[in-house]
Amino acid sequence: MSVKEVKAEEVKPYEESAAKKGQVSTMFNNIAKYYDFLNHFLSLGIDKSWRKKAIATLKEDAPKNILDVATGTGDLAIEANRQLSPDKITGIDISVKMLEVGDKKIRKLGIDDVITLQEGDSENLPFEDNTFDAAVVAFGVRNFANVEAGLKDMVRVLQPNSKLVVLEFSKPAMFPFKQLFNFYFKYVLPFIGRITSKDKKAYGYLYESVQAFPEGQDFLDLLTNIGLKNATCKKLSLGICSIYTATK
Predict the structure, then answer these.
(1) Which domains does the chain show, CATH number per domain?
(2) What is the C-alpha to C-alpha distance for residues 23 and 172, in angstroms, rounded to an integer?
(3) How far apart are CA 126 and CA 119, in angstroms?
(4) What is the number of other CB atoms lying within 10 angstroms of the CB of residue 7?
(5) Alpha carbons 196 and 164: distance in angstroms, whole number
(6) Bond into 176 cis (ω within 30)
(7) What are phi and psi of 65, to 5 degrees?
(8) Spatial contact of 83 and 59, defined as CB atoms under 8 Å apart
(9) pLDDT > 70: percent of the chain
(10) Is the pLDDT confidence value at 202 over 80?
C-alpha cells in the first residue's frame, strides 16, 4: 500500500481514533437535507455537467444493469437513467438519510421502477460476482475506509469487459487558478457549508480528503494494479475534478 493510500484512508471527518466508515456515515446523515443545495450552490452548478460527462463515457457500452456506489441522493443514478435508459440501476450508500432524500427525488420523477436505492457498504457489496455491466461512483471513493478494497469489490461484481467509471475531485495545477481554487476550497467553501449545514467539520473534511486522494497517474496505477485494463483519466474544469474509466 502506497503512502498516499494510507493518507487518504486516515483522513476522517471527526475524531482521529474512531473508524472512518462510521464517521462518514454520521457526517452525511448530518448534512443530507442540505447536500443537494450545497453541491449545486458551491460548485455554481458545474457539478451537474461533470455528472453528465461521466455518464456519457458509458453511451457506447449501452449498459442495462448499472451499479452506482456511494449514490448519496441519487443524482448520478438519475443522470444515468436519463442518458442511458437502462433496465435497472442499483444505488448503494452507507448514509440512510442521504438515501431517504434520493428516494423522494426518484419517486417524484416516477423512475422508481428503474432505480432502487439501498443501504450498504462499498467494501462488502451485497451482490454476486459478475452481476452488473457497468459500475459508477461520483465523489465517493475519497470516503472509502479502504480505497483499494472498495474498488476491488466493485470490480468483483462487474461482468467481464464491463466498465468502471469514477468521478472524483482533483487538484488544479495551473497558476493562478490553483491558488484561487485552494483558497476557495480550504476557507470559503467550509465556511459556507458550516453556517448552512450546521456541521462544523463536513466541508473542512472535503478539502482535506481531496488533498490526500491519490489522483491522476497515481489513481490510474491503482486501477491497473487491481487488474483493470485501459485505464484513462480526463480532467475537467481546469483540473477541479477528473473522470477515470477502466475495463474489467
Answers:
(1) 3-247 (3.40.50.150)
(2) 28
(3) 10
(4) 15
(5) 34
(6) yes
(7) -135, 100
(8) yes
(9) 95
(10) no
Per the CB < 8 A criterion, the answer to whether 248 and 162 are in contact is yes
**How does the average pLDDT of the chain come out, rounded?**
90
Q: What is the pLDDT of residues 91-107, one digit of tens each?
A: 999 999 999 999 999 99
Burial status of residue 32 (CB atoms within 10 A of its CB: 0-12, 13-18, 19 or more): buried
pTM, two decimal places: 0.91
Distance CA 230, CA 57 (A): 13
Q: Is the confidence at residue 182, as pLDDT, over 90?
A: no
Give the residue among 5, 46, 85, 198 at the shortest CA–CA distance from 190: 198
Which residue did the predictor score with more confidence, 131 or 210? 131
Question: What whole-number distance in Å separates Cα of residue 148 and Cα of residue 77?
Answer: 23
Query: Cα–chain-centroid distance for residue 182?
Result: 20
Type and span of the H or E element at 235: strand 229-236
Which letter does DSSP use for residue 122 in this model? T
Q: Are 169 and 163 in contact (CB under 8 A)?
A: no
Nine cell digits for residue 231 = 485505464
Q: 202 vs 20, 37, 42, 170, CA distance in Å? A: 13, 15, 14, 18
pLDDT given for residue 181 in this prediction: 82
